[in-house]
Give the backbone structure.
Amino acid sequence: MRLAVTIARAELRSGIKGFRIFLLCLMLGVAAIAAVGLVREAIRAGLSDQGAVLLGGQAQLEFTYRRATAPERDWIVSQAARVSEVVDLRSMATTGDGAETALTQLKGVDENWPLVGQVVLDPPVGVAALAGQGGLPGAFLDPVLADRLALKPGDRFRLGGQDFVLMARLMTEPDAGGAGMAFGARSVVALSALERTPLLAPGSLYETQYRLTLPEGQSLPALKSAAQKRFDGAGMRWSDARRAAPAVERFTDRLGSFLVLVGLAGLAVGGVGIFATVQAWIARKAATIATLRALGASGATIRGAFLIQLAALTVLGVLAGLALAAALVLAAQGPIAAAMPVPVTVTLAARPLLEAAIYGTLTAAIFALWPLAQLSELRAATLYREAQRARRGLPGWGMLALIGALTAALLGAAVAFSGLPALTLGTLGGVAGALLALAFAAAGIRRLARRLGPQSARFPALHAALAAIGAPRSEAVAVILALGLGLSVLAAVGQVESGLRGAIAKDLPKLAPAFFLMDIPPPDRPALVERMQEFAGVSRVDTVPMLRGILTKINGEDARKVAGEHWVLRGDRGVTFAETPREKLTAGQWWPKDYAGPPLVSVSAKEAAELGLKLGDRLTVNILGRDIEAEIASFRDVDFSTMGIGFVLTFSPNALAGAPHTELATIYAPPAEEAPILRALSKEFPTVTAIPVREAMGRVSDALAAIARAVALAASVTLLTGFTVLLGAAAAGEEARAREAALLKTLGATRGLILRSFALRALILGAASGAIAVAVGALAGWAVLRFVMEATFRFDPVSAGEIVLGGMAAVLIAGLLFAARPLSVRPAQVLRAQD
């Protein structure tokens, strides 16, 4: 080891020339992963530090459809230092003349709101302004909602048939982070004013939240246990500051983990550059290795010296990547904080930096050890012979085992850090599959170039380009591997985004309703249906009774312990009851009309299979604070993709007899009728909430587009790494192109012809990389749309064309940057040096 260290030190003193690509590839990959990790850690820290502000208190007890009874409220008040009651629901905000109507997420607050944090208003009138003016109650509106209704402070508008006056624009709402997804912009009114509207009538869909601050010495875990015991079977949901925004936390973790995995794809591309760099380095050091072997150095000593050098360079590249990530994230902390859903402070955290360092170190080791293993086969006598230097083959079994162990460690680290084994293994398997497909395609292109070469003799520039692509030391494999993977990720993102937008633009008008109508009082249903049918464009109006309930138990056991964290078990779900089935039964029997036996329930077949349910199982659902246990009588084929009415749970009518409820309706109408329908609803049925499906899907589309941009940004690092590898390949091939140019000049070729051959070679390789990337990306996009989004795949030729043109441009630029010297060198200099 002492001799190996001495040799390594001597080699390292000569500098890092020849290892710039190695370091750049490693640095970019590590920086991408570390940057994503730092932002993810900042959001996690923000959720932890600002938990009480996001929740609106240190703890929250939430009820659906109802407010706490007097004894329940007395118990809540007895446990807290302060209590604030908030009622949250959806409603329609309408201008006084009814010309403009908008969906709003309405919040009724008491005099203690907000318990924690500060509300920012424009003008800064204070929460007391909700008392109103001129005999009318006041309201605060989100600027988006105020602008849509063209309202300014002092103007009147209507909510639930009640007139309000706008007192201020709601600039910052402290407890917005834990509220989950909202379909409309926020409006805030006094709870006392909301009580004077019909919006809180029995059966109306609203949620009541009691936010608490705790007295000195009170323990959150102890209070949670006491509350769950006190409200067992009452439909209470508990939240506290330790996990104030679980939906945001879950989304952040999953998206962050996926972006890290995309960053690993960039490291894989960088691994191609590392492999090529180490291979070229060993070839350049052939004379040095031969001399050392001739002087008696063992293979182990030489390998040790080379390993020490690579280890030192890996440490340098990893540290440079961590430094770059830290600098970029700290420099952009202002825009990052502004774009986040919760207040964050971006700082340097150890965990994401360590994670990126582990990924970078393992990747460098895996891709560097393979070419380094060839040192075992090199002998002093053969190293001076050019033919022997080019000899390549598989490493020995020992080295293969080591590389396999390091690969397994990389996979294990990825699974452990992400916490999402299926996503991790699927993504990394996709990356490995893409690299394999690109490698096979590159070999096929080289073979095709050799076959077409003789047929292109009439076109000298094309002939020379094809000959270079099919040559033994062709750069085709490195180019297609380096560029193809980054383009594949971008192609997949483009196809998925295009497919989702296409589904919204093309399928929605054919399949989906124009509106969902909620909170329809049952006595108003006949009049509403009749009024909607007066519109000539309305083709169909469907109505069903609707309640909301929480699936708490399966066969008497806690549902989450039985079926895990399935989406059906997260929060409350819409439920209905019916005498006849609306969907096709897949198993079991429907109950007869006028059924009066024990409660029965029919479950959506797909969700039932995911939950592991079978006919005869018993489900306990808490509705309006009452536990209803029902036996599964049948499974139904529910197609939620049509955006029509569909429920996971449909009960027999006797199970919910007498329960206060409202009606849910869907209206099928063309876009031209939507505005008149909305105006009629706001004037004639002011308590009904209308959700425009097209507008809601537009919000979903915008959210998905934002995710796609984040993934595309991560993929762009992969592409940048690939371009770095291209530059390295072009630089490494400069000498070969100089010899090629010298030979062509000797045979009478002009500089223009040689330049055209270089350009054609680049364009062919770029087009091939882009075309293969489009095929791989389309396959990945189809899989995501088909199996994850359950949407129809439509190939987008525009996105595909951009990918192909981008690949051609990248390879052309990289090739032309290193074309000047081969074109300017004199043939005699090159050919004599070769002799």
